[in-house]
Amino acid sequence: MEKNNKKEMMVSVIVIALIVVFVIILAVVNNNMNKAKQNEVSQGKTVSNSQSDSKSVSGEDQEKIDKANDGIEITPEMLKEKLEKNETMLLDFHATWCGPCKLMKPEIAKALEQGVKIYKIDIDKYRETAIQYGVRVMPTLIAVKDKKPAKTTYGYQTVDKILALYNEIK
Q1: Could you give the CA distance from residue 24 to residue 57 in angstroms, rounded to a whole number?
Q2: Catalytic residue positions, numbered
Q3: Cα–Cα distance for residue pair 52/58, rounded to 1 Å
Q4: Considering the entire predicted model, what is its pTM?
Q5: Bond prior to 139 in cis (omega within 30° of 0)
Q6: How many C-beta atoms lie closer than 10 Å to residue 113's C-beta?
Q7: Per residue in 20-71, pLDDT tens?
Q8: What is the rounded CA–CA span in Å between residue 9 and residue 113?
Q9: What angle do CA 115, 134, 149 make, to 5 degrees?
Q10: Of 18, 65, 79, 109, which one is least surrounded by beta carbons within 10 A?
């Protein structure tokens, strides 16, 4: 009987020790995540609500941006036609729910104004096309030249980066 009590006590001590170690690990991980987040904020990598509000555009400007972006949405059939014509272009793979995609709309509109041929493909509507082009991150810009992908960029891109990408394939 005494052996069982000692055994049970030992198991209890081990379980408590494991719980304490687990709690300490969680505290350290949480502390590291908070430090990383603070570093991002101090380096300007994170946009706070006040920053995003100050960059908001007027209703009229937003309407122009939306109109420009909506006008370049294409289907796989339209893409096939453009490829057959050997068009040099950028394909913007996006989704309506994608935050960085929404943030990039004004940059796309500016690039369009400067003569960049950009066509948007909604990955939710045309999943097979996204798979065909190996899209795994959004937004994804694929530069197409001579009927095939020449270069790919991932994530939010400024108008300058969009122009540079397009100029590489022109």
Answers
A1: 46
A2: 98, 101
A3: 13
A4: 0.65
A5: yes
A6: 11
A7: 887 787 776 666 666 555 544 444 433 333 333 335 677 778 877 877 787 8
A8: 75
A9: 40
A10: 18
Which residues is 90 bridged to in the sheet? 118, 143
What is the spatial distance between Cα 30 and Cα 35, in angstroms, rounded to a whole number?
9
Tell me how far apart the terminal alpha carbons of the chain are, to the nearest angstrom.
85
Say which CATH architecture domain 58-169 belongs to: 3-Layer(aba) Sandwich (3.40)
CB 117 within 8 A of CB 87: yes
β-pair partners for 93 = 121, 140
What token pair was written down for 93?
Answer: 């793979």
The string over 28-46, giving b where at least 16 C-beta atoms fall within 10 Å of a residue's C-beta and e elsewhere, is eeeeeeeeeeeeeeeeeee
Residues 142-167: tens digit of each pLDDT: 999 999 999 999 999 999 999 999 99
Rg (CA), the chain: 25
- The C-alpha atoms of residue 123 and residue 145 are separated, in whole angstroms, by 21
d(CA 69, CA 73): 7
